[in-house]
Amino acid sequence: MRFLIDGRQLVFRCASAQPELSATVNGVEYPTGGVYGFFVTLTRLVDEWRPGEVIVCWDSRGPRRRREWFAEYKADHEPKDEIEVEHLEQIETQENVVRLLLQRAGAAQAIAEGWEADDVLATLARGADRAMIYTADSDLLAALSPTVKVLRPIQGREHVETVHTFTSARGFAPDRLPLLKALVGDAREFPGVPGIGVTWGSRIVRQHATLDEVLAAARAGKVGGPDLDGKVHLGKVAADRLVAGEDIARACLKCATLYDVTEDLVWITPRPDKRRLRRHLIRLRCKGITRARPLAALEGLARKRPGEAA
């Protein structure tokens, strides 16, 4: 099984959960909650799941395609004050440390210039015989298939999401999730169609597989129904809002879609060095990870990558 990890999302989550952890290196104090939490989680997952290969995927740091397509994409993510700027700088510093330590461990790391980790994760998952994606990001649920599962850490527990669990809970297939997001919006990313909430959006995607189908039904006055419970079509108000919001819906759908980024995929070159790995972990006060079992799992990553990096 190919085990794929959403790198930045895990660093961010661990850093936010343990902001008090720090280490002093050369007289300078650095936050380490993200580093420590990342490797504790990583070694535990490798030990528990025993995957055939492990790949950590990262966001591109340069200009991204989605922002070029839609200027409002993730506009709310920009830091609003000095405190937020400092927090994001600390996250980025810890991410750099995690990348370096993964190189020392010989682990596989992948990135695609101009794309997000979501696209990298989906691409590598679809290219495997069996894959598990580890992320709390619900966007990756769109990658679910008979061969792809998502392991989600939610409220202190980890839940395996499959095509069956997703469809049973929501009443539509995972590949329609980007359409739902395009209609109702995502507070973290883009606005969606004004006036189309989750209730209406869910009814619509249960009945229509594509945005073109949705718009055609809206113009014909037959959007969103009759639903599974026998209710009538949503009506003129919903139809008018969808037709009026066509441009924003198409822009949001383009941003919500997970893309195949095989041609832009870059492997971060591993530089296995057990001695330096152990020394770095100790200096960062991550000594617990250097104990026999966690370290063995970490060093085993060198044997769990898909061939040599370019």
List keywords for this structure.
alpha/beta, seven-stranded mixed β-sheet, 9 strands, elongated
Word description of this protein:
It is a single chain. The chain is of the alpha/beta class. The chain has helices at 7-17, 33-49, 65-69, 82-105, 117-126, 163-170, 177-184, 198-207, 211-219, 236-244, 246-256, 274-283, 292-299, and strands at 2-6, 22-25, 28-31, 53-57, 108-112, 131-134, 148-154, 157-161, 265-268. The longest helix is centred in the N-terminal third of the chain and has 24 residues, at 82-105. The mean pLDDT is 90.
> Rg from C-alpha positions?
21 Å
Describe the strand arrangement of the main beta sheet, using strand numbers: 8-7-6-1-4-5-9
Shape: elongated
Please report which band the strand proportion falls in: under 5%, 5-15%, 15-25%, 25-35%, 35-45% or over 45%.
5-15%
Low-confidence stretches: none
Q: Which structural class matches the secondary elements?
A: alpha/beta
Q: Mean pLDDT across all residues, rounded?
A: 90
Helix content: 40-55%
N-C termini distance: 22 Å
The arrangement of helices and strands along the chain is EHEEHEHHEHEEEHHHHHHEHH
Strand count, sense and barrel status of the largest sheet are:
7 strands, mixed
Secondary structure tally, helices:
13
Strands, count: 9
